[in-house]
Structures are given as structure tokens and as C-alpha cells.
Amino acid sequence: MTELIGRCEDDFLIAIKEGFEVTSHHRNALNKAAPPSPGVTTTASSSPTSTSKSGPSSTCSGPAPTMTGGSPIYASSSSTKGLQLDNVNGAAVVKTSGNLYWTYSATGSSLSTLNYINRCKVVKYLNVEESSPYSYKPLSFGDTPSTTYWSLTKGGNLKTTANSPYGVVSDFVVCGGPQWKVYLQTGTDLPSSQTGQYCETTTLTLQ
């Protein structure tokens, strides 16, 4: 071992003396040959490891509460009778099963659904897309309530209040199927004239 260390040290010194570049090969050879100094403990270095993103915040921890009560909102047209209003990828549709937990005010305000996803409370608001140039206005769900003129009572029809841009309106249009896209009907236009889909007029009732 002493002879090996000597050869490595000689190579190292000769390289410096003769002006050659001391490469990592020389250094590694010398480091591997030399024993650790007394009282010094050496450890292998580890490569950096990636860290995962933090999980849900504390407000999302623990089991989701058991949700009881609530009532579905049903469509009533001939083809959609018994189908329930729900949120599918942000679009308002009526389908075979819907969200049972609606938060609403009888006097006119926002209308929202409540769900728990991965133990996190998720609230989505039903909004009218007022920018549509046609009398039928698509309904969608968003994180904030841009429509605050809904009126809804137990056993009654969903409608807009008198202070809405359209006055009191309780008619809706549903198109497509089996998940029917829902529009607020403020006049006589029908989406079928633009999309070719089959459409019907309906009311939406909270049971």
C-alpha cells in the first residue's frame, strides 16, 4: 500500500513539475489510494433527490363530513322528466343523477353546489353566460358567483328575479342527450338552429 501511495504521489508531483495539467484521473487515483486520516469518518455522498409537492392544506385534511339532506333539481320536459341538474366539466346539464346539495336563497341570490373532493370542500356557482348573442343563454359553473339574481324555493321552479337583465324567467332549454346541456331561455331562439341538436323547453324544479 505504501508503495502504491508513493507512486501516485510521484505521478502527481511530476505532473506539476513538468507543467502538465493535473487531471481528475490523478486526483482520483491519489484519493483512492490514501487512507482516511485518523479520527476522520468518511461517508458516501448521495445524489440530490426530488421532493414531492406538499399535500392538501390543513383545511382539506380529515374525512369529508357526512352530507345529509338536500334535494335534487329536476327537469320536466317530455324527454328529460326526472333528470337532475348537475355540473359536468363546468357545463350545466341534466342527467340521470345530479348534485343533491344546493345552497340558495328564496329572495334572489347566487345558486351553488357543495361537494367534497379528496376531502376538500368544493363550491361551484351556477352562472348565466350573458355574453351569448342569442336569447338562449348557456348555464355554466364557476368558482365565483357572477349571477346573483336566482330565485328558488322548495317545491318551486328555478327562475331569475325581476331585477335580472331579463326580468322574471323560469323557462330553460335543454339540448342533446343523454346529458342535456342547459340554457336559460330569455326569448324564442333555439340552439337547434345553430347546432342542429334536438332541443326542448323545460322548467327546473327543486324537489
Fold topology:
Blueprint: H1 2-17, H2 24-33, E1 73-75, E2 84-88, E3 91-95, E4 102-103, E5 112-117, E6 120-128, E7 136-142, E8 150-151, E9 159-160, E10 172-176, E11 180-185, H3 192-195, E12 199-202, E13 204-206
Antiparallel strand pairs: 1-13, 2-3, 3-11, 4-5, 5-6, 6-7, 7-11, 8-9, 10-11, 10-12
Structural description of this entry:
The protein is α+β, with helices and mostly antiparallel strands. The chain has helices spanning 2-17, 24-33, 192-195, and strands at 73-75, 84-88, 91-95, 102-103, 112-117, 120-128, 136-142, 150-151, 159-160, 172-176, 180-185, 199-202, 204-206. The strands form 3 sheets. Strands 2, 3, 4, 5, 6, 7, 10, 11 and 12 form a 9-stranded antiparallel beta sheet that branches. Strand 8 (150-151) and strand 9 (159-160) form a beta hairpin. The longest helix has 16 residues, at 2-17. The radius of gyration is 35 Å and the shape is globular. Mean pLDDT is 75; it is low at 1-27, 29-34 and 36-58.
